[in-house]
Specification:
EC number: 2.5.1.-
Number of helices: 16
Organism: Brachybacterium rhamnosum
Number of strands: 4
Family: Belongs to the FPP/GGPP synthase family.
Shape: globular
Number of domains: 1
GO molecular function, one term: transferase activity
Keywords: Magnesium, Metal-binding, Transferase
CATH class: Mainly Alpha
CATH topology: Farnesyl Diphosphate Synthase
Length: 382
């Protein structure tokens, strides 16, 4: 599908996506150059922090900026002009910085050794500490570095978002600023619910599965799909009805995305995910997948789960046995079906929104393409 641009040109979604990627690269370059100049005046060691964050963002899939961008295009109902692409890219870059902060801290909380196929930031910093022969605990230094860099990335995200989504710049930027503020608040609240749930303290949820779903709703959905897509749409002038449609769609896609991610952490391909398979088992992540496995297994299965789940020193053969149990009990297949059902409901929402003219066809095409990629479970089966 193509669309006429503001100058009468015809723009394909693939070409627009490439334009977005280029604009994000430019936004990052400007942002990091400014921070490098600022921190360079503090100390050479402080300036090095900019390069660490810059490298951390390299190689990402730009999922959240794409949701932001195509939400904006859906609101515009046409191809964007150069200024609109630039503003949406800057807002998307700010959201990527929030994600970077969340991941840096999340890996510390979860004791995750890797991220995107390479050592997690706190592990990398600890290794550097040992190699340089610095004083004190290398592990403590790594954790402290990840916390500081996460805080720095979060600060930079706010500065960048304020350039394009300032409450004092008019109704559209003000609406986008509200979405960005809620994104940061909700993901932090969701992170706390996740930590609380891991400790067995999320007692207001009526069941283990519903607690896991609530964590998804407040940790993953807001900063992965819902707020990015609403922020982009608000920045481009979306009305209340369009925003509500996007919210309903985002809840389905965000939930399906996280359920799929939980599956990939157990039955995925480590080379493709960049994370060790079985990591969620050893860590003891209280996922929907685990809740359904516990509910469906027998006494022998529960004994296996008790001696393996949440135990970093668990025997490799027990971790493998838990993965096999998740398949054998039907838990994997049931989660795969839920991912597919949510993706199909989301598809229907977008289709109806395009048909009634609430969302533009070009933006709907872009959003559907990202959703298809984010919820694909064909390699898992079910």
């Amino acid at each position: 599908m193509t669309s006429a641009g503001p100058t009468g040109t015809t723009t394909a979604p693939q070409a627009l996506d490439a334009q977005l990627v280029a604009a994000i690269a430019q936004s990052r370059e400007r942002t990091f150059a400014a921070h490098r100049a600022h921190l360079g005046a503090v100390a050479p060691e402080a300036e090095e922090l900019v390069g660490v964050v810059e490298d951390y963002l390299a190689g990402g899939k730009l999922l959240r900026p794409r949701f932001c961008f195509w939400g904006g295009i859906a609101a515009l109902d046409r191809a964007p002009d150069e200024d609109e692409v630039s503003r949406l890219a800057a807002l998307g870059t700010a959201i990527e910085l929030v994600q970077a902060a969340a991941l840096m801290h999340d890996d510390v909380i979860d004791h995750s050794p890797t991220r995107r196929g390479r050592p997690a930031l706190h592990v990398e910093a600890a290794t550097s500490h040992r190699e340089r022969g610095l004083d004190g605990s290398a592990a403590d230094f790594g954790i402290a570095t990840a916390i500081v860099l996460g805080d720095l990335a979060l600060s930079w995200s706010e500065q960048l978002a304020a350039e394009v989504a300032s409450p004092g710049a008019g109704p559209r930027p003000a609406a986008a600023a509200v979405e960005f503020a809620r994104l940061r608040t909700e993901v932090m609240s969701g992170q706390y619910l996740d930590v609380l749930h891991q400790a067995g303290g999320f007692t207001s949820a009526p069941s283990e599965e519903e607690a896991a779903l609530a964590v998804i709703r407040w940790k993953t959905v807001p900063y992965t799909v819902l707020r990015p897509v609403r922020a982009g749409a608000a920045l481009m002038g979306a009305g209340a009805e369009a925003l509500e449609l996007l919210s309903t769609w985002a809840a389905e896609i965000g939930t399906a995305f996280q359920l799929r991610d939980d599956l990939l952490s157990v039955v995925g391909d480590a080379d493709a995910t960049g994370k060790p398979i079985g990591g969620d088992v050893a860590e003891g992540k209280r996922t929907v997948l685990l809740a359904r496995t516990v509910a469906a297994t027998d006494a022998a299965g529960r004994r296996l789960l008790e001696r393996t789940v949440g135990r970093p020193d668990a025997a490799a053969e027990d971790v493998t046995a838990v993965q096999e149990l998740m398949v054998r009990t039907g838990a994997v297949d049931s989660v795969v079906r839920d991912v597919r059902a949510a993706a199909e409901r989301a598809r229907s929402i977008l289709s109806r929104a395009a048909e009634c003219g609430e969302l533009g066809a070009l933006g709907v095409t872009g959003l559907q393409s990202i959703a298809d990629s984010a919820t694909d479970v064909e390699s898992i089966g079910g």
